[in-house]
Amino acid sequence: MKIIRLTMTQALVRHLAALRVELSDGTVESYCGGVFAIFGHGNVAGLGEALWQNRAELPTYRAHNEQGMALAAIAYSKAQFRQRIMAVSTSIGPGATNLVTAAAVAHVNRLPVLLLPGDTFASRAPDPVLQQIESFQNGDWSANDTLRPVTRYFDRITRAEQILTALPRAISVMTDPANCGPVCLALPQDVQTHAFDCPVDFLQPELIRFRRPPADQRELERAAHLLKSAKKPLIVAGGGVLYSQAWEALRTFAEMHGIPVAETHGGKSSLPWDHPLNVGGIGVDGSPAANALAAEADVVFAIGTRLQDFTTGSHALFARAKLLSLNAQSFDASKWHGTSLVADANVGLGQLHSAMGDWSADVPWTQHAKTLAAVWVNRVTELTTAVPKDVLPYDAEVIGAVRDSLNDNHGDSGKKDVVVCAAGTLPAELHKLWRASSPGNYHVEYGFSCMGYEIAGALGAKMARPDQEVIVMVGDGSYMMMNSEIATSVLLGKKIIIVVLDNRGYGCINRLQNASGTPSFNNMLDDCVPEGGSSSQIDFAMHARSLGAHAVHVKDIAELKTAMVKAREATMTQAIVIDTTHTRVTADGGCWWEVAIPEVSERAEVREAHQRYVGAKTAQRL
User: Fold this and answer.
1) I want to staple 601 with a disulfide (CB 3.0 to 4.6 A). Which of 320, 405, 537, 606 is the partner?
2) Pseudo-torsion of CA 507, 285, 621, 367, nearest 10°?
C-alpha cells in the first residue's frame, strides 16, 4: 500500500477535491463545488493551510456570516437537486453555533451540506481556550455538540487517521437517497495539524453514483391495487420528485392515467405551470383548484413529500381520502397509516406505471380537474396584472410585475428565472401565483421557513445556476434578519436581483394575530414604539448600496417594471425596494391550518376564535 505523509486536514481537502459524481445525464462533475470559510483561530492554521494548498482544485469562498454561508451552501445543493454539495468551515465558538439554524434548514429539507467547524484541543492542554464552552458535567462536550440534533451524521475527529473512515461515512449519508441531510465533522484545532501516513488510495476516491432503490414487489402490488380502486385520485408532488429528477416520469404517469397533479412548495415546478393537469399548489396556501380536488379525492397519491401540515391542512384537507405514499424514506412513506411504497420516485413511478396497465381515472374527474386548472390559470393572470390605484400594491401585483419584466419578446420567465423565498406572506403568494416552467425554477425554502434564507439562498442558487437570473423576493422582516451576503455576492461577482417588499413589519404574523382574536401587538413597526422611542425609518435601498449593490426605491408597479428590466441588463447585484401593504392578500384558495387558540380569555374575539378552532379540529384525520 502506497502512503503519503499528510496532516489530517490536508488529507480531508485532497479527498474532497478529488471526489467526482456521475450526474443523472451521465456527465461527470466534481462533487464538492467549493468551501465557504470564515477563518478564526480554530481553523485558519490547520484547515486554512490545507485549503490554500489546494485552492486551484477546490475553491474557497469568503463569506460574511456563518449562518449565511451555510444557507448558501444548502441552496447550492437544492439547486443541484442534491447531486452536488458545498462544504462550510468555521472556527469554534460563535462561528460553530451560528451553523445550528442552517443545519436545521438542511435537516428538515433533506438537503446535504458538509459542516467542518473547528473544535477545542483534543489534548486539552490549553483548556479553556478562547471561545470554549465548558460543561460542568461532560468533559468532552463543546459548542459543536449543539449540532448533533440537527445533523444526520456527527463525528469528532480526535486522531488524524480517523478521517479515513469518518469522511467516507459522511459522504455516504449525503449521497443516500433516504438519509440525505447535513453532516458534521468537528475538527479539534490540534488534530487538524497532526500528520499521519495517509494511503494514496484515499486521495483517489471512487466515482459517486447515486442509488435508485426500486419498490418491493409486495408493496408495489398493494399500491397498484389501491390506486386502481380510485375513481377520483389526486397526485401530490413533493420535493422528492425534483431530487430524483422524476418530472418526466410524473408527467407520463399523470397523462397516461388521467390524474391531476397538485404541488407542495418543495415539489412546485415538477410540472410546467401551464400543463393541463397541473392544478397548482396544495394546502393552506394552495390554489382553489387543488384544494377543491383534494377535498373530493378518494385516493391521494403523495410522491416525495413529508406531508407537512401546510400541505395537508393540518390533516383536515384530504382526511377522507385513502393515502398512498411513494418515498425513498420509509419514515415519510408510512406517515398517517397510509399505504407505503418505499422507492426512488423516478424508479417507483415507472414500476407503478407498468403495474397499472391501461387503467385511468374516471374521465369526468379528469375533465373536471382540467377545467378547474384552466380557470385558475386565468384567475392568476387577473390577480397578477392588476394595477392598483390610490392604494399600496400587495404581493400578487409585485409578483406579476417581476414575472412580466422579461422583455426579450420570445422568452418565458418561468423557464429563465429562479425565484427564491422562504418566509412571511410571500411564500403563500408565490405558491399560488408564481409560474415555473422548468424544474427547480421555484426555489422556496418552506420546510423550516427560515427568515434570512432568502438572500443567502439566492447566492447559493446563483453559484449552482450561473446562467439563469436568480431573483430574490423578500419582505423587510426577513431582509433585516440577514442581508450580509449581499456583500458576498458582490465580492464573488455572483449577480442576484433582490426585490424587497416593505410592509413595515411582520405583516403575515400580524394578520394571524388578529385572526386569533388579539389586537396588533409587537409585529408592525408602528405598533412597537415605546415611550421615549421613535418610529423606525429604514432606507433599504441605501443599505443595499452600502453593501455594494446597485439599489433603487420605486414608488409603484410601473416603476418596478422599469427597474426590473434595467436590473436584468445589469451585471452586478441589484436591489429594488417597493412599499407594499400587509392588509391585502390573495383570498382565492387556501384551507384551514391548526393554530391553537387560548381556551380562556377576557377578550370576546379570542373566545370566538377558540370556538371556531374547536369546530375545525373535528375534520382532522386521526
Assistant:
1) 606
2) 160
Residues 454 and 533 both lie in one domain = yes
Q: Is 232 found in the same domain as 188?
A: no
Among residues 374, 397, 432, the one where a domain terminates is: 374
Is residue 181 one of the residues assigned to a domain?
A: yes
What pLDDT digit, counting tens, does each position of 301-358 carry?
Answer: 999 999 999 999 999 999 999 999 999 999 999 998 899 999 999 999 999 999 999 9
Place of cell 447515486: 210
The domain of 340 spans 217-374
Q: Which string of DSSP letters, residue by residue, matches 389-449?
A: SSS---HHHHHHHHHTT--SSS--HHHHEEEEE-SSSHHHHHHHH----STT-EEE--SS-
Q: What is the mean pLDDT of each run of 10 residues along the chain (622 residues)?
A: 96 98 95 98 96 97 98 98 98 96 98 98 93 91 96 98 98 97 98 98 97 97 98 98 98 98 98 98 98 98 97 94 97 94 98 97 98 98 91 96 75 80 97 97 97 98 97 97 98 98 96 94 94 92 98 97 97 98 96 96 96 94 81
With the C-alpha atoms ordered 361, 270, 68, 177, is the resulting torsion angle positive or negative? positive
Q: 119 and 263: one domain?
A: no
119 three-state secondary structure: strand
- Phi, psi of 263, rounded to the nearest 5 degrees: -125, 135
Q: What CATH number has the domain bearing residue 354?
A: 3.40.50.1220
Grid cell for residue 233: 385520485
pTM comes to 0.97
Looking at residue 163, the DSSP 8-state letter turns out to be H
Helix (H, G, I), strand (E, B) or coil at 266: coil
Strands 3-7 and 195-199 come out as antiparallel
343: helix, strand or coil: coil
Same domain, 471 and 342: no
> Nine-digit cell at 20?
467526482
CATH no. for residue 15? 3.40.50.970
Respond yes or no on whether the N-terminal peptide bond of residue 117 is cis (omega within 30° of 0).
no
Residues in the chain: 622
pLDDT digits (tens, 9 = 90+) for 179-207: 999 999 999 999 999 999 999 999 999 99
What is the rounded distance in angstroms from the CA atom of residue 474 to the CA atom of residue 597? 29
* 286 belongs to a structural domain: yes
Residues 7 and 66 in one domain: yes
φ, ψ of residue 547 to 5 degrees: the values are -95, 0
C-alpha cell recorded at residue 541:
435601498
In a domain, residue 603? The reply is no
Is the domain of 421 the same as that of 563?
yes
